Design the sequence.
């Protein structure tokens, strides 16, 4: 029986989909059998980030309404044999499936896959309830901004009232320079308010944007600092004790020089 | 005058008698029935040796004069020696002053209301609201909104180990402290034992140690 982890945040644009795609891919890199589920019906993105949009035939709503079998709707990743994705529908809205239907689908997937990562839509309404219905655990993504932390706090409150086990925190898009100058919340500030276990910190990295646009998860690129962060998170999910990344590490002068000349 | 009513029950115990007086009926009825029983129907207990008597008035709120009136009737009977007269406190009359204890984390969007005085062990996060008809004592960080004396009690207070609220309200007075994110370190901690060894942890982790506490899980 696999484990279903919902990736949620409350606020939009903090990197739920990117986190789902990258942690999922990182778990697949570790040789795990993984299925990604997009529950953001009407605003699906996971397929775009994964570069699998053109392979979609059926979607979550089709499965829920019995128009196809679950296996028919799963899209196999082009890079890994053991990585699959269940896309959301783009033409419907959140209310076209019920939490019970999603729960049944997740239960079915848990028989087949070791990890099921559920990409949750922004907000706390029907879509959120759909996303957490089948989840055993939760990863809450936030960025070092007051608004994102506030919403993460709200989400944690709602998760604590639900059946989902104690949520873990990912702080995304940290800019070490800004934190150092005191213009950005640091990890300690965030943890003091949210008071949940930290499972990873991800530095802000332009390569993530580039990767998302080319449909290739960042985690595949060993040069990206965000990639290392996501791989670390995946290892922590698997139970390894990996120390937190040192953020103020500056690239050496030589590396900068090489970069300047396009050698790195 | 009714003889059949059972406002007054007399029970024998090892070393005396207990007079159980009903606490629902009008006090006047009680007195007249007591008088009737002693003077007419229960003459037999009044003859013989000296008997110790405990009087229980139940949950009736009684004044000293009321007690005096009951004693007056019994004193008239020579062999009854009054040992005690007691009335149980009316539930609620004392509780208003007692501290009600709660623990947990009050997160954004959650509201906790309590009638009376509240001692909250844990944090109130930004966006969280705590309201109380009496005082609020927070052992933890107050970063959200606290409203004491919601029913208009201007004497109410709000205490917090770390006072950094988004807004404070007492009765109908609203104050907005300078807007700043918390930078000070929360210093309040608690000590507990694990396998015989002393441990120190922040107060908001109390729930993890003390499962028996009333834990707020949100509304």
Sequence:
């Amino acid at each position: 029986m696999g484990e279903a982890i919902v990736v949620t945040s409350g606020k939009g644009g903090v990197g739920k989909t990117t986190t789902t795609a990258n942690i999922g891919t990182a778990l697949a890199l570790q040789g795990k059998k993984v299925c990604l589920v997009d529950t953001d019906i009407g605003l699906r993105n996971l397929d775009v980030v994964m570069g699998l949009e053109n392979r979609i035939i059926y979607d979550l709503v089709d499965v829920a309404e019995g128009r196809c079998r679950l296996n028919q709707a799963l899209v196999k990743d082009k890079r890994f044999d053991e990585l699959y994705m269940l896309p959301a529908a783009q033409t419907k809205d959140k209310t076209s499936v019920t939490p019970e239907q999603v729960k049944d689908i997740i239960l079915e997937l848990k028989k087949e896959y070791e990890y099921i990562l559920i990409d949750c839509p922004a907000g706390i309404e029907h879509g959120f309830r759909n996303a957490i219905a089948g989840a055993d655990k939760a990863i809450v993504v936030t960025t070092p901004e007051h608004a994102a932390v506030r919403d993460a706090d709200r989400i944690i409150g709602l998760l604590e009232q639900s059946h989902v086990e104690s949520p873990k925190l990912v702080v995304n898009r940290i800019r070490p320079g800004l934190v150092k100058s005191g213009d950005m919340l640091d990890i300690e500030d965030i943890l003091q308010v949210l008071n949940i276990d930290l499972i990873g910190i991800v530095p802000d990295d332009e390569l993530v944007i580039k990767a998302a646009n080319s449909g290739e998860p960042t985690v595949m690129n060993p040069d990206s600092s965000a990639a290392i962060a996501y791989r670390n998170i995946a290892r922590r999910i698997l139970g390894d004790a990996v120390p937190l990344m040192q953020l103020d590490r500056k690239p050496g002068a030589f590396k900068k020089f090489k970069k300047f000349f396009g050698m790195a | 005058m009714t003889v059949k009513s059972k406002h007054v029950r007399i029970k024998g115990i090892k070393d005396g008698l207990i007079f159980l007086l009903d606490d629902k009926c009008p006090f006047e009825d009680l007195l007249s029935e007591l008088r009737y029983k002693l003077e007419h129907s229960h003459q037999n207990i009044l003859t013989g040796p000296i008997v110790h008597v405990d009087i229980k008035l139940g949950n009736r709120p009684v004044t000293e004069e009321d007690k005096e009136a009951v004693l007056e009737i019994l004193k008239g009977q020579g062999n009854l020696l009054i040992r005690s007269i007691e009335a149980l406190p009316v539930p609620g009359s004392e509780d208003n002053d007692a501290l009600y204890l709660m623990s947990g984390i009050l997160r954004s969007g959650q509201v906790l209301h309590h009638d009376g005085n509240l001692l909250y062990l844990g944090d109130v996060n930004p966006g969280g609201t705590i309201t109380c008809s009496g005082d609020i004592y927070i052992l933890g960080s107050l970063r959200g909104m606290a409203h004491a004396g919601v029913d208009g009690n201007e004497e109410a207070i709000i205490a917090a180990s770390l006072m950094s609220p988004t807004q404070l309200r007492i009765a109908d007075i609203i104050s907005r402290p300078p807007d700043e994110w918390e930078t000070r370190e929360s210093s309040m901690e608690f000590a507990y034992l694990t396998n015989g060894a002393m441990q120190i942890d922040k107060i908001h982790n109390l729930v993890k140690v003390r499962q028996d506490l009333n834990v707020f899980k949100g509304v």
